[in-house]
Amino acid sequence: MKRFYIVICLLLVNILIYSLSPADSAQSRTIRIAAFNFYPTLFQAKDGSVQGFYVDFLKEIAKREDWNIEYVYGNWSDGLARIKSGEVDLLTNVAFTNERGQFLDYSKVPLLTVWAELYVKGGSSIDSIKGVKGKKVALMKGDFNAANFKNLVEKLEIPCTYVELGDFEEVFKAISSNEVDAGVVNNTFGAAKQREYGVQSSGVVFNPFDIYFTAAKGKNTQVLVTLDKYLAEWRKVEDSPYHQARERWSHKSVSIMKVTPASIRQIIIFFILTSCIAIAFVFVLRIQVRRKTAALKQQIEIRAEAEERFLLAMKASRDGLFDWNLETNEIYYSPAWKKMLGYEDHELPNDFSVWENTTDPEDVKKSWELQQKLISKKIDRFVVEFKMKHKDGHRVDILSRAEAFFNDSGQAIRIVGTHTNISDRKRAEEELRESEERNRQILHSSIDGFWRVDSQARLIEVNDAYCRMSGYSREELLTMAVQDVEALETAEAVAARIKRIITNGSDRFTTSHRRKDGRIFEVEASIQYRSGKDGGEFVVFLRDVTEKKLLESQLLQAQKLEAIGTLAGGIAHDFNNILGAIIGYSEMVRDDLAPESPCIHGINQVLKASHRAKDLVKQILAFSRHVEDQKRPMHPAVIVKEAISLLRSSLPMTITIEQDIDPDAGSVLADPTQFHQIVMNLCTNAFQAMEVKGGTLTISLQKIILSQEDLAMEPDLQPGSFVQLLIKDTGEGIPLETRERIFDPFFTTKEVGKGTGLGLSMVYSIVKSSGGSIICDSRLGEGSEFRIILPALEDQVVEESGSTELPPHGKEHILFIDDEEMLAELGQAVLKRLGYEVTTRRNSLDALTTFQNQPDAFDMIITDQTMPGMTGVDLARRILQIHPRMPIILCTGYSSQVSEETAKAAGIKGFAFKPMTQKDIAELIRKILDEQKQ
Fold first, then answer.
1. pLDDT (tens digit, 9 = 90+) per residue, 743-774?
2. What does the domain layout of the chain look like in residue ranges?
3. CB neighbour class for 755 (10 Å; exposed up to 12, middle 13-18, buried from 19)
4. Per CATH, which fold does 813-933 belong to?
């Protein structure tokens, strides 16, 4: 009977257990799992079998689910390939990525939370992530840790060399054999295998993440659900097959499963028979409770693991963490947070007053306002910079970033954030600002102009110097483009130049800019191009070279004048010798003719032309500054009439001359040659103004009376009588801005070849040196008028040329020396006509010999200056050494080496410029001989 009850109880228990077993376990199935070396979770033993933590607890699941598990061993890459091809059903130890999520389904419950560690060989100097700079680092090919390690070092800009291997085992072998300097593996493999390979953790920990079971997309979904069921339950129970296997492999020891004795088994069966009905209902209720609370516990566990990962990440970061519980007002500061201020963790309490007391008061107020906006959801994120007091007293620049967390009712419950020390960055920014300010001050105090120009040729920065150059304000210039100030270049030319500068990188050239008032000035531009995201910009330095160009022009003109002067000096001597012969022989011919001879008029015309040529030579020498002005009383009416006669033949038929010359206009004190130059210059300018369209040239010479009121604009002149010369044309007129500068030296508006810029400035200089004034009045389209006034000489007798008085004669013996045969013959003939005894010589050395032989035979010596062998001055010195009282006259057509002063200093009694008239030489000879006798 007893056996019967036992059998009945056993049947009831079996029925109960059967009713609680899974409904879909009717038929065994084979599960193929891709295996690779992920010690201690999964690896291949020396005998070829697959062992590890997963193998153990999967074996327990297989028993319960009637699965037959087959492991297909390879490396990680092989596993990925096999799951894609369908060769295996499951792949273990898979971290989630978006890419993998495209072809894999993941289990809901993670197998483990792991992280990456950097391992090195014992004694290595690598103790931080920066230590891998320039080193070789081994990585498992396709590993999630490897990808994150690469991202980390690339963000930190740490260069190193990667060596990709098949699995973690190969990574440790490479470190151990010194093939690489370091390697990245997960923490479980590293902790289990580091002693075996003689390696150790460098302390660099990063990238915490969960790993899962996975199946091919849309396949073996029920298998993943079953695995999630066991993992969710077993991970909560400490003595579950999951934790037993994990503990066993973590400690590298295999626990021995206890065997239950048969006697105890009978007791258990009896206990079950007697208790099964009572506990059946409790068991069923417990299953219901577990199902309802499983989701909640899973969320709590996931949150705990997420917090663990966050703490690990913060530990690896240099940022400080704070966590403020708004419900309890408790706050947590991480050790790194305190370290930023120079404190150890134990030196500062986790109290909100710490932040308030170490932060500048103004920054506290600003931060409070932002925190209130964050709590009230007016902003999504809290980002602020402020200063905090360091332990040693200096201020630390902090960048604070935080987010708020809210409960289901929308109330803020926590604020979590980080502090980043940005002191170095702020210091660099301040140094940059100071540098930019110094550069800006230098640029604005520079005498050279400065621009910054964008890629569209718009001005984006200008300095004070260029504002002064151009006459524009900074505000006006910043609304303008380069072509707006360019005076000559078109917009197309500016664009082409910009393109060329971008290609070459720089350029230097001279161009013309237009001032605000319309005047043009020359600038030398030096440009550098700097490329950038917005098309780049141009840095331009501009130097005003208007004055430099003017000086260069003046220098060029001065060099031209010097060349003209050299040429003038060279021809003056020869030309005057020729004129001397013409004048001398003409006078002798005239003297030989009867007074009623018709040839006398022709001879007088020759003499008149010769004297005009003589004056022309003087004018050339005056122009080149080789002779001094020779002011004397003169009648300007005569000079003006002569100038009109010369002009009339050279003017075209389209230009008519109207003249009003008063012969009684009076006399003035001036150089006749220079006055002639004034008339010719002003009339030539008038002719050029009317050259194209023709017109009327009006010339007037009158005597006028000017009062003090009339001379209000001429303070240097006194009221009285003046001779006024008026020259007027009907040309185009002179613009006001040009009229202001027409008397400046070297200023000209004429094209190249038509003016030197010296004409009007020389006219102005002659008038001023003669004590007068010149005024220009001009209107565009009507013409120009030049009015010159010179003080008139009252009751002055002006000596007129052409006196009929006979020249003085004599009987003395004169030694006459000239190297020109014609002049030597002329001199002998003229002197003999005057009654003198004459000895001629054509060589200064012959003359010296002649005098040495007969020093008392001669009463006077007349010598030319420029002769071969010995100059006239040197000859005079030698003669005076022999006969100190010998009167000597030195004649010269032109010499840059001698003047009247130097001649007198050498003991020479007379100095005469060729050509001389018979009367002039006769009077000079007689004057000196008479003085010698006295």
1. 766 556 555 445 444 568 788 888 888 899 99
2. 116-207, 317-422, 446-544, 636-793, 813-933
3. middle
4. Rossmann fold (3.40.50)
**What pLDDT digit, counting tens, does each position of 451-465 carry?**
999 988 899 999 999
Considering only the C-alpha atoms of the chain, give the largest distance between any 2 of them, rounded to a whole number of Å: 201
Contact 76, 142 (CB under 8 A): yes
CB contact at 8 A, 127 and 100: no
Instruction: Supply the pLDDT for residue 217.
Output: 92
Tens of pLDDT, residues 645-678: 878 777 888 899 999 999 988 899 998 878 888 8
What does the alpha-carbon distance between residue 529 and residue 540 come to, in Å, rounded to a whole number?
A: 9
User: Please, are residues 375 and 326 in contact by the beta-carbon 8 Å criterion?
Assistant: yes
Cis-peptide, bond into residue 40, ω within 30° of zero: yes
- Alpha-carbon distance of 700 to 867, in angstroms, equals 48
The whole-chain average pLDDT of the chain stands at 83
Both tokens assigned to 567 = 């040429």
Written as six digits, the tokens of 450 are 């400065």
Tokens linked to 420: 């980043």
For residue 619, what pLDDT is reported? 64
Q: Return phi, psi of residue 173, to 5°.
A: -60, -40
pLDDT tens digits for range 163-185? 999 888 899 999 999 999 999 99
User: Across-strand partners of 775?
Assistant: 787
- Categorise residue 236: left if φ over 0, alpha if ψ from -120 to 50, beta otherwise: alpha
Three-state secondary structure call for residue 703: strand
Residues 6+ apart with CB under 8 A from 122: 198, 199, 200
When pLDDT is cut at 50, 70 and 90, the band that residue 262 belongs to is very low
What CATH class does 317-422 carry? alpha beta
For the cut 90, the answer to whether the pLDDT of residue 269 exceeds it is no
| Cα Rg, the chain, nearest whole Å | 59
102-122 tens-digit pLDDT: 999 999 888 888 888 999 998
How far is residue 166's CA from residue 699's CA, in Å, rounded to a whole number?
111
- Name the token pair of 153: 């070092």
Distances in Å between the Cα of 113 and the Cα atoms of 245, 301, 806 are 16, 11, 140
pLDDT of residue 610: 84
Cα torsion 731, 732, 733, 739: sign: negative
Closest CA to 883 of 875, 872, 891: 875
pLDDT value of position 268 = 42
Phi, psi (degrees; rounded to nearest 5) at 228: -60, -40
* CA–CA dist 910, 927 (Å, integer): 9
Helices H / strands E in the chain, number of each: 28, 33
The angle that helices 187-197 and 241-250 make with each other, rounded to 10 degrees, is 30
Q: Where are the alpha helices (DSSP H) in 593-671?
A: 599-623, 636-648
Residue 440 phi, psi (nearest 5): -65, -40
Q: Judge whether 636-793 and 813-933 match in fold.
A: no
CA distances from 649 to 290, 452, 577, 604, 699 (A): 132, 60, 29, 21, 16
Of the listed ranges 337-351, 439-453, 623-637, the one predicted with least confidence: 623-637
Q: What is the pTM for the complete model shown?
A: 0.39
Q: How many residues does the chain have?
A: 934
Distance of CA 157 to the CA centre of its chain: 30
Distance CA 463, CA 445 (A): 8
C-alpha dist (Å) from residue 881 to 565, 806, 855, 886: 35, 36, 11, 10
Superfamily of domain 636-793: Histidine kinase-like ATPase, C-terminal domain (3.30.565.10)
Q: Which fold has domain 446-544?
A: Beta-Lactamase (3.30.450)
- Rounded to a whole number, what is the distance in angstroms from the first to the last CA of the chain? 196
What fold does the segment set 116-207 form as a domain? Answer: D-Maltodextrin-Binding Protein; domain 2 (3.40.190)
Could you tell me if 268 and 59 are in contact, meaning their C-beta atoms sit under 8 angstroms apart?
Answer: no
Give the distance from CA 6 to its chain's centroid.
Answer: 104
For residue 253, the model assigns a pLDDT of: 36
